[in-house]
What we know:
Elements: H1 9-75, H2 81-91
Helix pairs in contact: 1-2
Amino acid sequence: MLNLTNVSIKDQLRLMTVILLGLMIAVGSYGIMQFREANVYIHSMYQDRVIALKTLKMVSDVYNVDLVKTVSKVRNKRLSASDAIPILEEGK
């Protein structure tokens, strides 16, 4: 351990300031690195999950709209059941 009895208070304060500044820089650097890792993770999650779900929803919506339109046309007798079967089979 350092013997600080012969060191002036001014020099002790300087030493403590340097040590605290070093610790602050180390903690700040660690925080910045953690933010970067979190940003990479969130970007990956967005690309892998959110965009895929949006695409899946668009496909599902188009399929459901076509299905509902075809069934509605058959119900309103604007399309025969025999003509609707190929359209519904195509949706599978």
